Amino acid sequence: MKVLITGAAGQLGVELVQHCIEMGDDVVAADRSDVDITDAAAVDAFLAQHLPDAVINAAAYTAVDACETNVDIAQAVNGTAVGIVSAACEKFGAHLVHVSTDYVFDGTLDRPYLETDETNPQSVYGRTKLAGEIAAGSAASIARTSWVCGEYGDNMVKLILRLAAGDTPLAFVDDQRGHPSFTADLAPALRTLALERRAGTFHLTNGGAVSWFEFVGDILEAAGHQRGRVSPIATADLDPPRPAPRPANSVLDNAAWKAAGKEPLRDFRAPLTELVARLT
Ligand SMILES: NC(=O)c1ccc[n+]([C@@H]2O[C@H](COP(=O)([O-])OP(=O)(O)OC[C@H]3O[C@@H](n4cnc5c(N)ncnc54)[C@H](OP(=O)(O)O)[C@@H]3O)[C@@H](O)[C@H]2O)c1
User: Fold this and answer.
1) CA–centroid distance for 141 within its chain
2) Among residues 182, 56, 183, 74, which one has the least CA distance to residue 132?
């Protein structure tokens, strides 16, 4: 497969590039300096030049709180640009795999979210990512994931390993639940969607639902610290409150992936242990 990966210098992008190269793909790794996905002429020219079989779009404006004030940038990158990439994919015969998020939901459901559940984003980030899903079109694979961590880029695992080295008291919310998801496991699943050109929406996360408080406890334990170093707080007690609201329930049922006969991604504690071993 010849695969073009946008957002190739991002947390997920770096892992995707490495994995696809390992699998023997012909990889075109593109970050913003290679092609700005908001620039239709540049995207068109880039696809015309490389003629990939598939495009995995891992480019996004992911600063969730900053999106609340930088609405135009969020809409341009997370929404409009996906339509640009999708149109170029259609023109040049490439299958599009587009990465999306649990933030398209409002988090009020009392069970894990299915792909078919109604979306109702509560933040600018969530609304613009939903616009991107719509712009990707019905021929694309849309992969919603959550709480992404990996070796590259900033994430909760790296933050906790840094904080655990000092003696700062740790307090994390116990009323937002989700599935931590690791780029090492996401990359092969996204590549499969690209290779099999599977149209539709797929929830793709590691297994094991936890609150952020519980997840931090698991990270501490994996790194040999006492999990008792973290205490639980409520979202309402965050001071100052975060500008963008987060869903209380971010748990995504990977129903479509399982219905396609695919092996569910591992419980998150397995890739967590592997990542902590690599980072420490
Ligand atoms: N991180 C999470 O917890 C999480 C959760 C759910 C879903 N997701 C989704 O997963 C995907 C990957 O996220 P990530 O954590 O890997 O994010 P990331 O580390 O922020 O990577 C995003 C990449 O996109 C690039 N980019 C931004 N604007 C661009 C543009 N106009 N043209 C080309 N490239 C551009 C960024 O480059 P610059 O650095 O130059 O801006 C960055 O390299 C995204 O679709 C995100 O919405 C992430």
Assistant:
1) 14
2) 74
113 is annotated as an active-site residue? no
Q: Which of 5, 11, 16 to mutate to test the pocket of ligand 1 (most atoms within 8 A of CB)?
A: 11
d(CA 18, CA 201): 24
pLDDT tens across 93-122, in order?
A: 999 999 999 999 999 999 999 999 999 999
Residue 103, ligand 1, Cβ within 6 A: no
Q: Which atom of ligand 1 is nearest to the CA of 129?
A: 47
Cβ neighbors of 237 (< 8 A, separation 6 or more) are none
For the cut 90, the answer to whether the pLDDT of residue 239 exceeds it is: no
Domains of the chain with CATH codes: 2-154+179-208+250-266 (3.40.50.720)
Dihedral class, residue 237 (left if φ above 0, else alpha if ψ from -120 to 50, else beta): alpha
Pair of tokens at residue 137: 């079109």
Give pLDDT, residue 214: 98
193 C-alpha to center of ligand 1: Å? 19
The Å distance, Cα 269 to ligand 1 centre, comes to 24
Predicted pLDDT at 168: 87
